[in-house]
Amino acid sequence: MSDENLKHSALEDAQGLGLGVFLCSVGIHVLTHLGLVTGQTAGLAVILSYVTGWSFGAVFFVVNLPFYALAWQRLGRTFTLKSLGSVTVLSILTELMPMGFRIEYVQPALGAVLFGALTGLGLLAMFRHGGSLGGIGVVALYVQDTTGFRAGYVQLIFDAVLFSVAALLFPLSIVALSLLGAVVLNLIIAVNHRRDRYVAT
């Protein structure tokens, strides 16, 4: 089969990215309802929104802005534009979600797993269609390319710092539940995001 036949169409990309962003927005709605945190740029935005009282959507959009120039240089125009569009739509959806989806009760551990599962599947859909939610992952790839230091380690260090800060700001029970959600999310990505098995782009 030729490479051309393996590529997603524009409509398939729109569907995949749209579904991914929607699942991530539902996951973040569950996360913020429980007052939990997560890793990466979304986690930074969540913590800032809790501390400042500003909305997650607005903070997430602004936090991602500095990364687009680097993404354009490192990963190209298409990836950057898809990521910019995805971040923008996610920022809007997280603002609108509480208007149509009000959570009365969810057991915290179950909520953490729900967040991890929904967001992990959402990110997986986005990765498979050449998009992302921007942020620290772009910096991690840049560091790897320029220094040889692995991108995964850069992300782990960032998350370790982020959760350490969270431990100073929030009860340890919140941090522990947040780690549960982050583990579920990262396991989904680690097990399923395999370019050697899924080759369409």
UniProtKB/TrEMBL annotation:
Record-linked InterPro entries: UPF0750_membrane, YitT
A cellular component annotation (GO) from this entry: plasma membrane
Keyword Magnesium: no
Keyword Membrane attached: yes
One Pfam family here: YitT_membrane
Membrane association type: Multi-pass membrane protein
Subcellular location per the Swiss-Prot or TrEMBL entry: Cell membrane
Alphabetical UniProt keywords: Cell membrane, Membrane, Transmembrane, Transmembrane helix
Domain of life: Bacteria
Primary localization class, coarse: membrane
Transmembrane feature ranges: 16-37, 44-67, 109-127, 160-189
Protein name per Swiss-Prot or TrEMBL: Uncharacterized 5xTM membrane BCR, YitT family COG1284
Organism: Palleronia salina
Biological classification of the source: Bacteria, Pseudomonadati, Pseudomonadota, Alphaproteobacteria, Rhodobacterales
